[in-house]
């Protein structure tokens, strides 16, 4: 019987040690961050809801000595100008976001900014859609088709050229659904060629008068879909999110740490104390 209190003391000391270790998180750096970097609730730009892993481009902070760090994924910065959200893909080309759908697969609908701002019947597109290296974005297979812009061409073809003056290239220009482009080495006879993603659409006749006069613009204005490749997350970012943390990155795309809900920065994952939970119950600590 005299040993019982001693055992309880040893048990209490062991549990207190485990609790202290849990509070430290094992891999804690001891650093903290400005919790305003990570919004707890979605914010809106116009009617578009913006939540992690997206973030507002003007909401960056200093993190671990890196200025303009952010809470989110590289390449998912959203500019909100006059209630219009835009996303910049590779290069300088911006796309207006019509909506973002969050779920098991996060996806969004985008429209080329120049197309969205062009009220004419013949919108112009002078670039391909590309992603930065290591991007989490991809085209969902069945939802995407392509229009091919053949600009400034010097050939005769049964296809009729469009009557729109797109970019001012001499020669003929054509806008054709990709699956209807005749075989040939078009790069040798056309000055510029672009493939523009659009939503999957029904069959169109590129030889029709309506198409040649700018009906293709209606297809462009519907935009296209992009989705987030969840399986492409780095291992350390996956572990961070599984522990209720969020990933912090530098502007150069370097993972800086796991941003925990209580304002602590962990190198890998948040502990239970960082998320407001405790491994050890009060009854165990009291020996009941």
Description:
- By secondary structure, the chain is α+β, with helices and mostly antiparallel strands.
- It has a domain at 3-26 and 271-285.
- It has helices at 3-24, 113-117, 209-221, 235-242, 282-285; strands at 28-32, 43-45, 48-50, 55-56, 61-63, 66-71, 77-81, 84-88, 94-101, 107-112, 137-138, 144-153, 172-177, 190-199, 224-228, 246-249, 255-259, 264-266.
- Strands 4-7-8-9-10-15-11 form a seven-stranded mixed beta sheet.
- β8 and β9 form a beta hairpin.
- The radius of gyration is 27 Å and the shape is elongated.
- Mean pLDDT is 81; it is low at 14-29 and 277-288.
Which bin fits the share of residues in helices?
Answer: 10-25%
Going by helix content, strand content and strand pairing, the class is alpha+beta
SS elements, strand count: 18
- Gyration radius, in Å: 27 Å
Measured between the Cα atoms of the first and last residue, the distance is 17 Å
What ranges have pLDDT less than 50 throughout 5 or more consecutive residues?
14-29, 277-288
Shape: elongated
Portion of residues in beta strands equals 25-35%
Oligomer: single chain
Write the element-wise H/E pattern from the N-terminal end onward.
HEEEEEEEEEEHEEEEHEHEEEH
Largest sheet: 7 strands, mixed
The strand line-up of the biggest sheet is: 4-7-8-9-10-15-11
Let me know the average pLDDT: 81
Count of helical regions = 5
Signal peptide: 1-28
Subcellular location: Membrane
GO cellular component, one term: membrane
GO molecular function: polysaccharide binding
């Amino acid at each position: 019987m005299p040993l019982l209190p001693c055992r309880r003391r040893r048990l209490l000391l062991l549990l207190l040690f485990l609790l202290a270790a849990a509070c430290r998180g094992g891999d804690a750096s001891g650093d903290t961050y400005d919790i305003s970097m990570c919004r707890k609730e979605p914010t809106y730009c116009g009617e578009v809801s913006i939540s992690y892993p997206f973030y507002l481009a003007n909401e960056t902070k200093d993190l671990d000595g890196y200025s303009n760090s952010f809470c989110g994924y590289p390449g998912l910065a959203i500019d909100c100008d006059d209630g219009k959200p835009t996303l910049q893909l590779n290069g300088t080309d911006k796309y207006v976001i019509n909506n973002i759908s969050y779920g098991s697969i996060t996806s969004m609908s985008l429209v080329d900014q120049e197309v969205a701002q062009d009220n004419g019947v013949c919108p112009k597109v002078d670039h391909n859609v590309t992603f930065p290296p290591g991007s989490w974005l991809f085209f969902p297979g069945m939802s995407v088709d392509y229009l091919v812009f053949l600009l400034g061409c010097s050939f005769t073809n049964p296809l009729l050229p469009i009557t729109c003056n797109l970019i001012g290239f001499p020669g003929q220009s054509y806008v054709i659904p990709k699956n209807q482009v005749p075989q040939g080495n078009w790069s040798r006879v056309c000055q510029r060629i672009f493939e523009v993603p659009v939503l999957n659409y029904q069959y169109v006749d590129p030889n029709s008068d309506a198409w040649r006069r700018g009906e293709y613009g209606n297809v462009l204005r519907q935009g296209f879909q992009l989705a987030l490749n969840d399986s492409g997350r780095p291992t350390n970012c996956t572990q961070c999110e599984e522990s209720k943390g969020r990933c912090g990155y530098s502007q150069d795309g370097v993972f800086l740490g796991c941003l925990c809900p209580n304002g602590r920065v962990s190198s890998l994952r948040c502990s239970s104390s960082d998320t407001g939970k405790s491994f050890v119950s009060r009854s165990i600590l009291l020996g009941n």
